[in-house]
Amino acid sequence: MNASAYVTRRPNRNNPPARREPPPQEQPQPDLVRQDIWQGPLPPPAAIEHFERMVPDAGQRIFDEWQREAAHRRDIEKTGQRGNLSIARLGQIGAIILVLAVLSVGALGFWLGYPKEAAAIVISVVGSVVGAFVYQRKKGE
Q1: 1-15, 76-90, 109-123: lowest mean pLDDT where?
Q2: CA distance to 44, 53, 71, 126, per residue, from 50 (Å)
Q3: What distance in Å separates the CA atoms of residue 14 and residue 26, rounded to the nearest whole number?
Q4: Where exactly are the structural domains of the chain?
Q5: Contact (Cβ atoms closer than 8 angstroms) between residue 38 and residue 47
Q6: Which residues contact 133 (CB under 8 A, 6 or more apart)?
Q7: How far is CA 1 from each of CA 4, 5, 6, 8, 10, rounded to the nearest angstrom?
Q8: Does the global pTM surpass 0.90?
């Protein structure tokens, strides 16, 4: 006979009975949230009308700010284009000065009796400058 079959469990007197939860109250529903999104520099006309109801002259303020921002953006683009043009011109002026200096050294070499060396210097430098211009032109296309 198995002794464990006759063991009964005694209730734990230190453990209180489980609490019963009160029936759930109806939870308040959250307010609905609406989000409007638009693309482009200006909101749609319905949104502008809504803004006008909240803040007088809001539509005119939005248009004025849009015009100022567009003018500022065009000004920045002009400044960047002017800077790029200045850099290109500076490079061209530097190339012209370099070619003139090399031609002068080549002419001096011919005059001093070193025609092969003078021709090598002139051809290599002028060829490098022409190659750089051709490369930049093809890169820009």
Answers
A1: 1-15
A2: 10, 5, 26, 68
A3: 35
A4: 41-140
A5: yes
A6: 95
A7: 9, 8, 10, 16, 22
A8: no
